[in-house]
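Quick illustration for those who missed Monday's session on complexes.
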Amino acid sequence: MAQTIKVKVLRQADPHSGSQWQTFDVAYEAGMNMTTVLLRIAAKPVTSDNENTTPVAYDSCCLEEVCGACTMVIDGRVRQACSALVDDLLKDNTGTIEVRPMTKFPVVRDLVVDRKPMFESLKRIKAWVRVDGYHDTGASARVTPAEQEEAYPLSRCMTCGCCVEACPQFNDRSPFIGPAAISQAILFNSDVTGRVDKGDRLEVLSGRGGVVDCGNSQNCVKVCPKDIPLTDSIAKAGRDTTIHKIKQWFGR
Ligand code: SF4
Ligand code: SF4
Ligand code: FES
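Prediction with iron/sulfur cluster bound:
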């Protein structure tokens, strides 16, 4: 195994400046992940050409692929830095690991992006369960094991952005809410309390930027680190919105 690894990072000082590549030599450590690599660069921000520079900015929080904050494009594949192991990456490349920020979100600095467009989509589809207050409202309706089995995979979404990064329909020129938000609409519509807002969610899903904007390329489901069945959710959203519209035509 190489004693030193080369890491090429696409850097950007602020949201308005241009970007440039910088390469760093990082001492190899057994079992290191890309977050550790970025930590080592931050501790000694000197390029391979021996130029002093600023530490590479990146986000991280949970360090166990749960929060989605460290999502970036590593060797051309969108993924989380904390679960990207250097040993695995070096198996597939020529010794230089290439890291860049996601392209579907505004860059804040270096590898830090603003995932606000995703959170705005979640707001549009009311990705929450309404509560009247924090008093005891008694037992809620029962959830069957079968319903639980269906809902649990969808609840694993961490709003990381991998699916929208891979989606050709999601970009700043399109109102498309994206696969994650569609899947969350299906999740909250299936919830015994959350379904009180089902009609509103279906209105958004059947309107401009809704499920009809999906081009069915199926890129999203291939990159989701949580194996969320996004294309099943999209198919269900298609069926539910059709039924919703038919009911509206008949005034129900
Ligand atoms: S659906 Fe998967 S890829 Fe998309 S934001 Fe959620 S966890 Fe990430
Ligand atoms: S299936 Fe739809 S949501 Fe998924 S990547 Fe393709 S266009 Fe985007
Ligand atoms: S730090 Fe939370 S997913 Fe990587």
